Amino acid sequence: MRLRIELLRFILRKLTAALPLLFGVTLVSFTLTVHFGPDPVHALSGKNPTTADLAALRRELGQDQPFWIRYAGYLRRLATLDLGHTETTGEKVRDLVARTVPVSALLLGPGFVLGTGLALLLAMFAAWHRGSRLDRLITGASVAGMSLSFVIIIIALQAVFGVWLGWFPVRGWEVTGPASYLAHVTIPTLAFVLASIGYNTRFFRAMLVNAMNAGHVRTARAYGAGPVCIMFRHVLRGCLLPIVTRVVYSVPALVISGSLLIESHFSIPGIGRVTYHAMLSGDQPVIMAVVGLSAVVFAVTATVADLLCRLADPRIRLA
Amino acid sequence: MSFARTACATIAALLFLAACEHSGTEGETPTVYRHAIDGMPASLDPAHAANIYSATLVVNLYDTLFRYRYLSRPYELTPNLARGMPDVSEDGHVWTIHLRDNARFADDPAFPGGRGRAVTAGDVVYSLGRHFNPSTRSQGAWLWRGKIAGLEDWMEAGADPDQPIAGLRAVDDRTLVIELTEPYPQLAHTLAMALAAVVPREAVEHYGREFGVRPVGSGPFQLEQLDESRAVLERNPHFDRGPLDLTAEGYDPQRHDQLGLQALDGKNYPFIDRLEIHFITEPTARWSSFIAGEVDNVMVPPEQSGRVLASTHPVSFQPDIERDYHTLAEPEAGFVLYGFNMANEAIGHHPDEEIDRANRALRCAMRQAFDWQERNDTFYQGLGQVFPGVIPPFLDAFDPTLDDRSTAHAPRQARRLLDAHDWSPETLPRLTYGLESSVHQRQMFEQFRARMAAAGIPNEQLRRRAFANFGDFSRAIAGGELDLFLIGWTMAWPDALYALQLFYGPNAAPGANSFNYSNPEFDRLFEHAARLDDSDERTALYRRLNEMVIDDCVHIGSLSRTRLHLWPRHVLMLPDREMLGGYFLRFVGIEAAP
């Protein structure tokens, strides 16, 4: 009971502390977008505008308003989740985000889970057999994976599995159920796994090797504990904090930014592609919504990461 | 053990769900054509359909009064929503257009009872008028500004759609009268543009800002689904234009015999139940998707042209490509060109005649220093067509006998010209070359700079300034921040005036005249030509205007790229990727796939 109250207080405290962070992030990003971001007026004004046309369009876009009024309006919209309309299509930004974030999550979720899980397993093997051929093989393959261009991986997978073997669609997102989902998600997942596994394996291995040098691990070995028991119960627990932190902190980018390359090359209607096009066209309501929501998700993630660290290591106080 | 059980149960559940997903699809299979385009439409509101991607969808979701004949080249106008071509008064000021009586908007909740209603002349008035309402944020108002009597007054009075517009009247449900302030023969072309598509007021008001993603029109298709990956259009059951008359559409046995279009002649169109338009921006993905059979057409990416072509002069395809696909190599309805900022006195117009002459010599020297053939070979696989001036070869007014020295690579002459006007590295101005940020554009800049250096213009005199997106690039041009820039110009109608307006004084930046070219004689002749109907006199004027632009060395150019298209043999069509051509999709037919 005491722990629950402590947890609840902790969450409230963290979220309250996140408010200045949110204010700062939104203010900086709004300032940058308004003053240095792409100007949508010329892209929205057709082929032969006059100066008066441009001025009228600026008024329509609210660009003639003072900065603080615009910023206050943005904060109000963000707080009420009434994010306005996109400047290009006119669609409600809230609907756009609600439509595209799940697609990105469904697209990148499997790759994220598989990539992390596989990297952890490989890192465990490499760490356990440190210095052996297996370790060198895994480490070498990781470096090779890190050196490969993401675009090359995507194009090669499309050519092999989509064109040559014809097992999966080359691109698109025509998901109507589990079978079509599996068909469309497989190549992107493979690409994501191949692109991320190298970095993750190297990082996890370094953490695990460090933890294996700890005294309590040597003691466990001396007691005759088996490799699985040692690895999962003693080594992994010992280095769970950096691993959890790394994994959890990659979630906001996954949920909000999506993966621009994957979504572009596979023509997938996710939030990454939408954000990229918004940046190109200067669609400020979309850009600001994504930045604002990213800040919110980041604040929540930081809280979740702290909580998980507390669960992983009871010595950490929820102060 | 329990893990194995769980895994088996999961796999079984997935297989069951997969089976469910595929059940219920029995019955007649709809005919589907899957069309790939290389960009994404921004909005499906006709008032915003100023680019190819939006226009491709809009002309299939909505009706325009006129359209272009499917197969005729050069392009020819033909009635669409209109019953015939317009009756134009003797003085060219009054246009009377009669509408067909069987056009109906698609069913939509915006209408009472959800049933679409007949399209009337009042809808045309409303659709053109809304371009002049600031809240529409129209990208097409410039087409009719100052041309239709009373539009500006109506706009200043609040652009109330319930108030009449003096020069734009629906006499009855089927008769539209347009009164012009001066003869405007191009009007018929503007009324064939996606920007002029007819919208129902109910839908615009019902959906408000979201009208751009919830189109309601009277075209051959209606929107079923739209996201950033594709648009799915279903046949509009209310669309009735009678049978396809191939002869009237410009069928030429010599050019079209191999396309199998005869099988469609005399049948009611559209011939497909569903039109899917896939937005595939990555060239490799587009090509792979076509080879895998996921889409039914491809505009061949430049890096694949070597794979599909047997020769480039003349263009011929590899035998295996000819065997498996229909092929088409067609020049684009547009061109690319370099332009100078004539408002900059360091290189453009100058009040001092001597300096003005020297500036002209510098521009002409830079034009002679540039090597269009090298550009063509490096970036367009040698398939582009280089031509002098700005009247591209696909237009009637194109003059094949025009002196082409303005596009010839002549570095020695360029040097001589610079010397003759005392231009030296010390006196040459420092010029800002603007570009959109990309590897491709950067390479083009380096090539340009190398050619200039070979003619004696040092690298330091050309400074590169990159922009992250087209909007910022356009803003910099409009603001006079760039002295030299490469732009593309896509023709929205097949008339040289559309290209020549790039140099018309009143269109100066931020308008289409990005070069800020100012020549009263040019403007006078342009205005005169703009009032003339298609005639030898007008063609001669267009050519004269073209020569003036060449003589003044306002630009370096031009080049029309060649598009290579492939599509499977069971798809019966003649594709057209250009701004004018989205209409072909209503005529696509599908034979049983092999």
Oligomer status? heterodimer
* Named CATH topology of the largest domain in chain B: D-Maltodextrin-Binding Protein, domain 2
Strand runs of chain B, count? 23
* CATH top level class name of the largest domain in chain A: Mainly Alpha
- Strand content of the residues of chain B, in percent? 15-25%
Classify the helix fraction of chain A into a percent range: over 70%
The helical percent of chain B reads 25-40%
CATH H-tier superfamily of the largest domain in chain A? MetI-like
Q: Looking at the structure, what is the overall shape of chain A?
A: globular
**How many discrete structural domains of chain A?**
2
Alpha carbon gap, first and last residue of chain B: 48 Å
Main sheet attributes: strand count, strand direction, barrel closure of chain A:
none
**Rg measurement of chain B, Å:** 26 Å
Structural class assignment of chain A: mainly alpha
Say which CATH homologous superfamily of the largest domain in chain B is assigned. Periplasmic binding protein-like II
Q: Which stretches of chain B are poorly predicted, pLDDT < 50 over at least 5 residues?
A: none
Strand order of the largest sheet of chain B: 16-20-15-19-17-18
